[in-house]
Amino acid sequence: MNGTGADGAAYTLGEVVEVVERLWPPSTAQSWDAVGLVTGDLAQPVRRVHLAVDPTLAVVAEAVEAGADLLLTHHPLLLRGIHSVATASAKGETVTRAVVGDLALYCAHTSADVAEPGVCDALARACGVLDPQPLEPWTEREPLVLGRVGELASPVTLRAFVEALAAALPATVGGLRVSGDPDAEVRRVAVVGGSGDDRFEVVRRSGADVYVTADLRHHPVLEEREQTRGGRPFLVDAGHWASESVWLEQAERQLRAELGDRVETHVSRLRTEPWTFVVGANAACDDAALDT
Fold it and tell me: What residues bind a divalent metal cation, as annotated (predicted)?
């Protein structure tokens, strides 16, 4: 496909969905996930596509105001079941605003995580990884080829690596959290966009010097750092929204390559992470006892 349908008219939503599902097949999504079309008429024309990580009320309002016909997001809107789309709830209001605004909504979540290229490839590139490879092979037991691993062009200190990554990712309130020796040299990098503290064992087997992911919880991280005796892989929590937002421009390029320039595209610049400020953050803490 490039540009228009066979008769020269704008693509229908159904035709665009076919492209979307070829790029990020729903069959590759996790069984618990909720990917696919949420709102929209398959016969409606699509001339403008809006892309965002989260289908928040603000993002939907932005897309409607921009005249978008389709909002493509990474995160699902209806991951957990609801029984009403009344505007009394935020999710209900989101659905209502999309429908009233003639805005179709499609969510590509874990289907985009595991795609090649997908979310993890985009994060790997932001890290400076050359030729990223699957972190673990596809098997019937583990159908998600989740994560990427590869080498930097040359070794750098952990501090320099994280500073470069912070410059490559969109700014967030919390910044990047790091566990490891800032002066240690690193070269082999593993990544999982979004939540990834269930992949520590796989990352260790990959021989990675540093692991970049998000949503790192206290107990899994503490146990991992104890397991490695404070050694490799060092850990970087890049933030959920930031680690996945780098996929949007890649997804935009893929869509334009398939649909041509008769379909306009726009990547939302709204920051949809929930945090608004921090207090009392310390740039670096050692293992000394807390001050009293």
Answer: 74-75, 113, 240, 244
Q: Are residues 58 and 150 in the same domain?
A: no
How far apart CA 11 and CA 23 sit, in angstroms, is 17
Residue 83 marked in a binding site: no
Same domain assignment for residues 121 and 85 = no
Residue 244 assigned as binding residue: yes
This prediction's pTM: 0.93
Residue 110 has pLDDT above 60, yes or no: yes
Residue 113 marked in a binding site: yes
Domain span at 209: 114-238
Tokens standing for 4? 């228009």
Please report how many Cα atoms fall inside a 13 Å half-sphere around the Cα of residue 197, on the Cβ side. 18
Establish whether 218 is an annotated binding residue. no
Alpha carbon 208 to its chain centroid, in Å, reads 21
| Domain tally, the chain | 2
Residue 103 lies in a domain: yes
Each residue of 223-263: pLDDT tens digit? 999 999 999 999 999 999 999 999 999 999 999 999 998 89
CATH of the domain at 185: 3.40.1390.30
Q: Is residue 20's pLDDT more than 50?
A: yes
pLDDT, mean over the chain: 93
Do 105 and 128 lie in one domain? The reply is no
